[in-house]
């Protein structure tokens, strides 16, 4: 055993660079999450409107974005749209647009599901005891919707963070890409670098996602009834 | 859009599509088996195995498939385990899918009230019979929606395999874009290929879900 592969992690600024890459991953996820949560709530409300035209449009959008692998969407945005409209998008912008479109669809469906799961008699009972529409929404519907929605929305966040790993494939320099650069640079000196670097990135994602998914599981259990 | 080019591309995509479907199919069947075993271990709290599957499920659910694949494909050869890209893809998909399927089955099992198990036992059924005739049929019917979502999720995840040099649909599209600059045609065919694979699956599951809902109880 000549050179321990783990050393490559602590050579020079390698570990700091990986952490910086992770930070870019988190930044992109964070921006996309904020955008898609807000737009998703609006989308979900629109989806509950009983108008056939709105229904068809939202349905087609939802099904298309949902059924296409995220990598295909990224390619469509990064290679297709840029060419079709002769615009220049950086990988980061393309990624944020794609994740927002996808997240909005997923979030919209969650919001719709949560809103529609509230039994009709809740509205009627509210009315019967003399609450105004705003009061019914604020005190009866909202609290119940949020309980169903928040755990699922948090799960969506971990899915979005995990999916951001794909943007290395459209040349965004985030944690995976930085890892590849380090492996490339130490190919000759430390042949086992790939094992350690990818192992590290694996646990980096785990450390970010695990607490979030635990939180979702806990809220789900606590709010069951 | 040049339809002559598209016609030329069809056989390439057909081949890649068949490969994608084949890997997805093997991976999904493997995931179902793995998930089924894990869910039973978790449900009956078999010692030691219970903890191991717990760690596995959390690891697999909280990391992206791409990193799992990179680790398998680029990392493992460094300690002497060399996997072909096809094996890598299948192992990766089962590693990822197993945990998702396991959670789907387990939530189905846990949704069954304890009284069902107890009634079965008090009727004089053996424990194995209770599992086989009472628990499983209900658990499977309850977990169909989650199961269907997982199958579609796993088929979509196969798109990542191009990153470990598997000549699947994504890979074909990438190569065609790089070689001939027919970006529009290559991407158009890519979308069509995934629609051809996923739309029937999605429609089938919607139908199945509706059919199975009648088999449920009460609601």
TrEMBL record, chain A:
<dbReference type="GO" id="GO:0043190">
    <property type="term" value="C:ATP-binding cassette (ABC) transporter complex"/>
</dbReference>
<keyword id="KW-1133">Transmembrane helix</keyword>
<feature type="transmembrane region" description="Helical">
    <location>
        <begin position="61"/>
        <end position="80"/>
    </location>
</feature>
<dbReference type="InterPro" id="IPR000515">
    <property type="entry name" value="MetI-like"/>
</dbReference>
<keyword id="KW-0813">Transport</keyword>
<dbReference type="GO" id="GO:0006865">
    <property type="term" value="P:amino acid transport"/>
</dbReference>
<keyword id="KW-0472">Membrane</keyword>
<feature type="transmembrane region" description="Helical">
    <location>
        <begin position="21"/>
        <end position="49"/>
    </location>
</feature>
<keyword id="KW-1003">Cell membrane</keyword>
<comment type="similarity">
    <text>Belongs to the binding-protein-dependent transport system permease family.</text>
</comment>
<protein>
    <submittedName>
        <fullName>Amino acid ABC transporter permease</fullName>
    </submittedName>
</protein>
<keyword id="KW-0812">Transmembrane</keyword>
<dbReference type="Pfam" id="PF00528">
    <property type="entry name" value="BPD_transp_1"/>
</dbReference>
<dbReference type="InterPro" id="IPR010065">
    <property type="entry name" value="AA_ABC_transptr_permease_3TM"/>
</dbReference>
<dbReference type="GO" id="GO:0022857">
    <property type="term" value="F:transmembrane transporter activity"/>
</dbReference>
<feature type="transmembrane region" description="Helical">
    <location>
        <begin position="195"/>
        <end position="217"/>
    </location>
</feature>
<dbReference type="InterPro" id="IPR043429">
    <property type="entry name" value="ArtM/GltK/GlnP/TcyL/YhdX-like"/>
</dbReference>
<dbReference type="InterPro" id="IPR035906">
    <property type="entry name" value="MetI-like_sf"/>
</dbReference>
From TrEMBL, chain B:
<keyword id="KW-1003">Cell membrane</keyword>
<dbReference type="GO" id="GO:0006865">
    <property type="term" value="P:amino acid transport"/>
</dbReference>
<dbReference type="InterPro" id="IPR010065">
    <property type="entry name" value="AA_ABC_transptr_permease_3TM"/>
</dbReference>
<feature type="transmembrane region" description="Helical">
    <location>
        <begin position="65"/>
        <end position="96"/>
    </location>
</feature>
<dbReference type="InterPro" id="IPR000515">
    <property type="entry name" value="MetI-like"/>
</dbReference>
<keyword id="KW-0813">Transport</keyword>
<dbReference type="InterPro" id="IPR043429">
    <property type="entry name" value="ArtM/GltK/GlnP/TcyL/YhdX-like"/>
</dbReference>
<dbReference type="InterPro" id="IPR035906">
    <property type="entry name" value="MetI-like_sf"/>
</dbReference>
<dbReference type="Pfam" id="PF00528">
    <property type="entry name" value="BPD_transp_1"/>
</dbReference>
<keyword id="KW-0029">Amino-acid transport</keyword>
<protein>
    <submittedName>
        <fullName>Polar amino acid ABC transporter permease</fullName>
    </submittedName>
</protein>
<keyword id="KW-1133">Transmembrane helix</keyword>
<feature type="transmembrane region" description="Helical">
    <location>
        <begin position="20"/>
        <end position="44"/>
    </location>
</feature>
<feature type="transmembrane region" description="Helical">
    <location>
        <begin position="130"/>
        <end position="153"/>
    </location>
</feature>
<dbReference type="GO" id="GO:0043190">
    <property type="term" value="C:ATP-binding cassette (ABC) transporter complex"/>
</dbReference>
<feature type="transmembrane region" description="Helical">
    <location>
        <begin position="187"/>
        <end position="208"/>
    </location>
</feature>
<keyword id="KW-0472">Membrane</keyword>
<keyword id="KW-0812">Transmembrane</keyword>
<comment type="similarity">
    <text>Belongs to the binding-protein-dependent transport system permease family. HisMQ subfamily.</text>
</comment>
<dbReference type="GO" id="GO:0022857">
    <property type="term" value="F:transmembrane transporter activity"/>
</dbReference>
